[in-house]
Amino acid sequence: xxxxxxxxxxxxxxxxxxxxxxxxxxxxxxxxxxxxxxxxxxxxxxxxxxxxxxxxxxxxxxxxxxxxxxxxxxxxxxxxxxxxxxxxxxxxxxxxxxxxxxxxxxxxxxxxxxxx
Length: 116
Hints:
InterPro entries: ABM_dom (IPR007138), AI-2_Isomerase_LsrG (IPR050744), Dimeric_a/b-barrel (IPR011008). The protein is an alpha+beta fold. Helix content is about 40%, strand content about 30%. Strands 2-3-1-4 form a four-stranded antiparallel β-sheet. About 15% of the residues are buried.
């Protein structure tokens, strides 16, 4: 029974929220590094389904990243990629705090982009 529940968990989306506080003097550099990393991850990794990054309008140094991976193993592969490791080394002195929270989806709805 335990094996089947672990297997089911492995096959379900793995969703995580990252709450980041960035050094205000490094904010523009941080945003650039995060954007580069997110674009590479979504483009290159089939297991990276969504990476949404936003900052608080009133407190721009507070960044939230909403991440959806195809599975836990897709996430584990993601954190070993060259572009992730480059991002982490680039921003290590820009990030003042990082809180990672694993979350369980209730509703994940999105409109599909319609091409002309």
